[in-house]
Amino acid sequence: MHAADAPTPPFRVTSGAWKDLPRMPVAEFPGTEGFIGDVYINPDDSVMCSGYFELRHTDAPLYYEYEYDEMKVVLEGEFLLENKETGQSLTARAHDAIFFPKGSKIYFSTPGYALAFYAGHRGAELL
């Protein structure tokens, strides 16, 4: 059997994965309340991981440097996004799509609460 003839793995549906996300380490993200969890980690040898990211309002923004390409879709609330190196500053609201190219250095904040779904071109070790 050739690889092209191999059966296609079944698709998946996962419910409720956005609930009770693990908190991001306080030592790495001091003064912030970020929560993140992969739902699918390189399924069937895919180069992608996906999951949910939640942010609650704090005085300190959450800083993240992307070592991979990632896309997010805002499901609830709004994210205030800033790259201080480039001066770019945008707001992403519910139903907006975001693309962060590898190397992006982003400060995330929110006036209240925000929840997004993400898909990244990375292995699980980079979460």
Question: What does this protein structure show overall?
Answer:
This protein has 127 residues and is mainly β. 0% of the residues lie in helices and 47% in strands. The protein contains no helices and 8 strands. Strands 1, 2, 3, 4, 5, 6, 7 and 8 form an 8-stranded antiparallel β-sheet that branches. A hairpin with a 6-residue loop joins strand 1 and strand 2 (48-56). The model has no long low-confidence stretch (mean pLDDT 93).
Summarize the structure.
This protein has 127 residues and is an all-beta fold.
Essential attributes:
8-stranded antiparallel β-sheet, 127 residues, 0% helix, mainly beta
Distance between the termini: 36 Å
Low-pLDDT residue spans:
none
Number of helices: 0
In round numbers, the mean pLDDT is 93
Beta-sheet strand percentage? over 45%
State the major sheet: 8 strands, antiparallel
Q: Specify the overall morphology.
A: globular
- List SSEs in N-to-C order: EEEEEEEE
Which secondary-structure class do the elements indicate? Answer: mainly beta
Please give the number of β-strands: 8
The proportion of residues forming helix, as a percent range, comes to under 10%
What's the alpha carbon Rg, rounded to whole Å?
A: 16 Å
Give the SSE map.
Elements: E1 33-41, E2 48-56, E3 62-65, E4 70-83, E5 88-93, E6 97-100, E7 105-109, E8 113-121
Antiparallel strand pairs: 1-2, 2-8, 3-7, 4-5, 4-6, 4-7, 4-8
